[in-house]
Specification:
By secondary structure, this protein is mostly helical. It has 9 helices and 2 strands. The protein has a two-stranded antiparallel sheet.
Length: about 190
């Protein structure tokens, strides 16, 4: 059995940006559960998108985390706002953890061990299964409500949730442009399954 906790801590050095040891451990626990239930051999095998395998989900999640954190710092320094950095980092690190469940049907079998059919399915959008994982491991409500990022899923918006959503769009636009030469909106119009 893979050492998922070690994989998660190695994949996401941004975990160190979370000042709360308890919250950091909950983020690691959510990823560990998702990787195990999804049956993944390696966290680096999860693609960014079902049809974009040149970029890993880890790379995207790290990009979203960096963009959101830097934006939050700018909001503090330039606007005098008070976004919760721990909430932002935890939510960005978890915003695509649900891809561990959703994307098992889009990779080669050798990248998987034994996906649990109760969880591993493309039927539930990854932002909702990510929300459920954050809830299951006991992440604070502020983290949970910042995870859903698709139109129609969005709960009450907070400063932290808006940063997660906008950073996700910024990273996604960069990835689709660099890998496919199209905008995120063009990708959604042509390929989106939601």
């Amino acid at each position: 059995m893979p050492d998922y906790e070690e994989q998660v801590t190695q994949a996401f050095p941004e975990l160190d940006y979370i000042s709360s040891d308890n919250l950091r451990s909950k983020v690691i626990e959510a990823w560990t559960l998702a990787l195990d239930r999804g049956g993944w051999r390696d966290i680096m095998d999860i693609p960014y998108a079902w049809n974009i395998h040149e970029v890993t989900n880890v790379r995207h999640v790290r990009g979203v985390t960096k963009i959101a954190r830097e934006s939050a710092i700018e909001q503090q320094e330039f606007h005098g706002a008070d976004p919760d950095i721990d909430v932002i980092v935890a939510a960005t690190l978890l915003h695509d953890v649900g891809k561990c469940y959703e994307y098992v049907d889009f990779v080669e079998d050798e990248k998987l061990l034994d996906p649990d059919p109760r969880y591993a399915t493309e039927e539930i959008p990854h932002s909702l299964s990510g929300y459920a994982l954050a809830h299951e491991v006991g992440c604070p409500l502020a983290v949970q409500r910042a995870i859903p990022h698709f139109i129609g899923e969005i709960p009450t918006r907070t400063l932290e949730a808006e940063l997660v959503k906008s950073a996700n769009s910024a990273s996604s636009n960069a990835i689709t442009q660099s890998t496919m030469g199209i905008t995120l909106q063009e990708w959604v119009d042509e390929y989106s399954q939601t």
